[in-house]
Every structure is written in C-alpha cells, then in structure tokens.
Amino acid sequence: METDGGWAQASDAELVVGVRAEDWGALHELFLRHGPWLTARLTHRCADTSIVDEAVSDTFLAVWRNPGWRAEGEVGAWLWGIAIRSLLHRLQPRRDVVDLLVTLRSSDAASAEEEVLARVQYSTVGVALERLSPELRAVVQARVLDGLTTREAAFMLGIPNGTVKSRMSRARLELREAMTGPPGTRPALVRGERAT
C-alpha cells in the first residue's frame, strides 16, 4: 500500500483502493501507468487526438467518481472497457469521425491486437483468423478483443445490431470448424475462393 506518501510501489489493485479512499496520489499513479497505453490504443480507433485525449480524461474522471473495479480480472482490462466506451460516447455526435475510423488508422504503428495476431499468425488460431473474411474479422475484433457490446460494435462498424450478431455467429462457426478439423484440412470456403 502507500508508503511515505507515494504510490509508485503499489499494485494496481492497491491504487484502486486508494482512489476509493479519495486519494488523488493514487489516481495520479494509476493515470501515469495506464494513460499512455490507453491513449495509444484509442489512437488506433480514432485519428482525432483531441477526442482521444478527452476520452482518456473521461476515463479517469469516471474512475475517480466510481472506482467500481470488483477485483475480478486485470485493472487494465477494466480501464480499457471504460476508455473504449468513453471514446464511443465522444464519437456519437460526430458520425463523420466514426466513418473515418477505418480509413484513417495509422499504418506505421501496429495496434496491440495486430501485434498479438502477428505472433499467432502461423498457429492454428492465427491461420483460422486469417481465413475469416474482413467483415467477420472486424466483428471478432470489436466484440472479443475490444470487449464491446453488440450495440457498441454495431455503432463502431456502422452496421445493424442483427448483422453484428449474425457475423459473430458465422465467425464462431468458421473458427470452430477450422480448429476442430483434421490437421492440414481447410475450413469451409472463404468468400472469394473457388472450389477445385
């Protein structure tokens, strides 16, 4: 816990306890640890740095007002859930920004998800993910990697809720087939491939 008025050696869980006790130092240390990577990940979702900065600020303001982490999972994952929802809230009145998210992503730096996917590219999971159509991969990223609800994913991708559900269902089926099939076999034909 806190020693000599400093929080640098405290765990993330201890920092949340400190925030619950209304200690600004604990919130500041939480921000120093998590603010930079949250900003980097949100920048891959939105090219407007002022909106990203506001979303990060909103995240830590929400934590200050309601440090509701329930000691389940990582504090970072809890913060990411708040941050991505803060970004979506900021984007709602600016639909034009949402439309630009896909086209304005920075190509010179890989997102955390892209780095993870690159590491598993040649594993069974990586091969199965690679074989999904771009539409299905986008839904898997939004729902699984970003942890968005169906409604939030629909908003982010600009498609109806039902389309998110059906694409997620199709992606699960294709991934299951790819993962349980005999070694060296291919899953059902991917869009654009021809049967031989």
Q: What is the CATH class of the largest domain? A: Mainly Alpha
Number of helices: 10
Give the oligomer, counting copies of the same chain as homo and different chains as hetero. Answer: single chain
Counting helices, strands and paired strands, the structural category is: mainly alpha
Describe the biggest sheet? none
Number of domains: 2
The share of residues in extended strands comes to under 5%
Which fold name corresponds to the CATH topology of the largest domain? Answer: Rna Polymerase Sigma Factor, Chain: A
Distance between the termini: 64 Å
CATH architectural label of the largest domain: Orthogonal Bundle
Which bin fits the share of residues in helices? 55-70%
User: Measured on Cα atoms, how large is the radius of gyration?
Assistant: 20 Å
Report on the structure:
Belongs to the sigma-70 factor family. ECF subfamily. GO terms for molecular function: DNA binding; sigma factor activity. It holds the Pfam family Sigma70_r2. Keywords: Sigma factor, Transcription, Transcription regulation. This is Sigma-70 family RNA polymerase sigma factor. The protein is mostly helical and 196 residues long. It has two domains: 106 residues, Orthogonal Bundle (Rna Polymerase Sigma Factor, Chain: A); 79 residues, Orthogonal Bundle (Arc Repressor Mutant, subunit A). It contains ten helices and no strands. Helix 8 crosses helix 9 and helix 9 packs across helix 10. It is elongated.
